[in-house]
Request: fold
Amino acid sequence: MLKNYMEEVIANKLKEMLDGLDVCKCPKCIMDIEALALNNLPPKYVASEKGELYSKVNLLMQQFEVDVIAAIIRAAAIVKEHPRHENANP
Reply:
């Protein structure tokens, strides 16, 4: 099984941060935030449980977490300014 572990990292971190972000919380905007954040971070592909464990250890590194949070905040600002639907409400 091959997967981009960053998808899980972004989804989990966004769930933690969502209440503090002044942005529409509809599914379309959430997916847009995730996509933009993922496009601004390097992928972390894993092909095994060992690879996933290694990636989880890297997640604990402070700079990695700062980069993830910064990417989410930037993406949320873009989605807030340019929602892809009408009547976007936070």
In short: The beta strands are 3-4, 45-46. Residues 3-81 form one domain. DSSP finds four helices and two strands in the chain.
